[in-house]
Specification:
The chain has ten helices and no strands. By secondary structure, it is an all-alpha fold. The protein has two domains: 52 residues, Homeodomain-like (Arc Repressor Mutant, subunit A, Orthogonal Bundle); 135 residues, Orthogonal Bundle (Tetracycline Repressor, domain 2), CATH 1.10.357.10. The radius of gyration is 19 Å and the shape is elongated. The mean pLDDT is 88.
Length: 202
């Protein structure tokens, strides 16, 4: 229950802090000693909570890193939906991508999380699973934007799927390059460059 017309309660703040401590501990251990080599028992112990508490906050070991993907997907969709009517599907999706870069994390933390996801097969599989749901949820949003521009029917559905798929492919390519540069490159610029490469292809 929230106090003062929306302020988090003491219990909620305690839960958020505990959850954040668990995630930060997991990232540190996964980064220093490896994902497979780190147990949930060790994470719980170093975070100062019981394993039962850890699993109450995070259903699986993968969700310690990928658990906020559902919230990020909702933010992505909401951002795309809020773009003005005249904004193209491409630019609306770019706005969604931009909103995610540091959502809930510092840029340094985002880099660590992205590196873990891209270089750990179990985390990458979980990530891809959630991203498939993002694309599915974005379909009606992009289709409606195309409909407003006069495109209808199966061809518009195909166009919407293609735009979404290409956007996500460019996002992944940009993220992979960003990781390879150890964060020295600008992620948004890398995304623009990836999209330019696609558009310039013969």
């Amino acid at each position: 229950m929230k106090q003062g017309g929306g302020a988090p309660s003491v219990w909620e703040r305690s839960r958020q802090l505990a959850s954040q401590e668990i995630v930060e501990t997991a990232i540190r251990l996964f980064t220093t000693q490896g994902y497979e080599e780190t147990t949930t028992e060790q994470i719980a112990r170093e975070a100062g909570v019981s394993q039962r508490t850890l699993y109450r906050y995070f259903g699986t070991k993968e969700d310690l890193i990928c658990g906020d993907q559902d919230a990020l997907g909702a933010l992505f969709k909401e951002t795309v939906e809020k773009q003005p009517a005249g904004v193209s599907p491409w630019d609306a999706l770019k706005a969604g991508f931009t909103a995610l870069v540091t959502a809930g994390h510092s840029l340094e933390q985002t880099l660590k999380i992205s590196t873990l996801i891209f270089r750990t097969p179990a985390l990458r599989a979980r990530y891809e699973q959630k991203r498939d749901l993002w694309q599915y949820d974005l379909m009606p949003v992009i289709r409606e934007r195309l409909r407003a521009a006069g495109r209808e029917g199966p061809a518009a559905d195909h166009e919407a799927r293609t735009i979404i798929a290409v956007t996500f492919a460019c996002t992944d390519a940009a993220t992979a390059t960003w990781i390879a540069s150890e964060g020295r490159e600008d992620l948004a610029t890398l995304y623009d460059q990836a999209l330019d490469i696609i558009r310039a292809a013969p």
